[in-house]
Amino acid sequence: MHQKLLFLKLNVLLSGKFTALVLMCSLVGCKQEANEVETDLIQVENYTTGTDHVQKTETYVRIPADNHITINVDVPATGRYQVEVFGSSDNGTIWIEDYINNTDDRTYNITGDIKFAHNNSFHSSSMFGSPLSEGSHPFKIHAKNDTVNIDWIKLTPILVHDSTYEVLEQKMQGSQWDLVWSDEFDVNGLPDTSKWSYNIGNWGWGNNELQYYTAFDEKTARVEDGNLIIQAHQDKSDSTWTSARLTTQGKFGFKYGKIEFRAKVPHDRGTWAAGWLLGSNYKDEISWPYCGEIDVLECVGYEINDTTFAGLNHATCHTRKYYFKQGNQIGSDTTLTHMTDSFHTYAVEWHPDVIYGLVDGKRYYTYDKNADDLEWPFNKPQDIILNLAIGGGWGGAKGLDPNMDAPQYILDYVRVYDLK
User: Which domains, ranges and CATH numbers included, belong to the chain?
Assistant: First the structure.
């Protein structure tokens, strides 16, 4: 079992189906109720189409590098999944593409590279945390670097999506900000589970990020002396990274208001610290950017001076009309001093028709595109997310500092206000 796997899994093969009983656990015990979901064992020799060089045997499929097969998959419940592949290769990897017939000309890589031991014997290999919504999905299974032989694929839910949550809609008329929700991080130990849940896994998070997000692990997320500390760690034995991503998903959704993060961010090259909001109606990758995203605090380490800790914070709104994978996102940045050794207050003021970004009370960003739902999905609730990523398309654009050692993202509080 993967050494960083923070759940227990019991699979029973019954009539060709796996009944997956999933218990979210940590080194200190179980913290969530079990989810029981039936999942099919996907025999890849039943693929529907493939490129010319694919070879089918009685029990497995041989996919040469830079080729693929297409297969239809029925996902039993919306949530995050372990994707387990039984196969072999000398030097190849696979990755799985979801929603291959989408109309947005997007490539949805939901696993990153799944690697095999280089011995050509059949064995299982997994990726964790892939987001999938209930229903039928046409997948492409892509081979990279070398020929890959695949016998079967199994999807096991590690966290079933909870769509029950409390929505706080803030009033936005008046002259005085009034506190309506907060976490002051004043009780040492694990983060408050009445306010926060965990995103889990190492599938790349849509940005080719390197970290495995863990759950209920004080090493990666803990409250200590009045602060929340999210800390990344590298396993020296295999160079893999762990970190944490906290979300109010399934607990609280927010609509309008002033949202503040008072924080210190790491300066190490390769880090990517964020405090942001994501539409509560996000289910899997095709939900984004239709669901909307509001980036309040977003800092990459290579933009922060290693000595003075001066650098940049970015505020951005992503919508279907304007988002970074199209290269037309609407964002702004501001220069700050002492980003690592002093707290700054990062905020947005989210009105029904405009969003403002502020740092330390100074406004520097405006998003006011609200002609239709493609420009303005921000009339629906959003979840708050706090995370520290390692690498990825932006955080890793200048590589990783080889001397980076357990960088910390420190938050003094998260607060939500309405206007009276």
Answer: 7-25+36-160 (2.60.120.260), 166-419 (2.60.120.200)
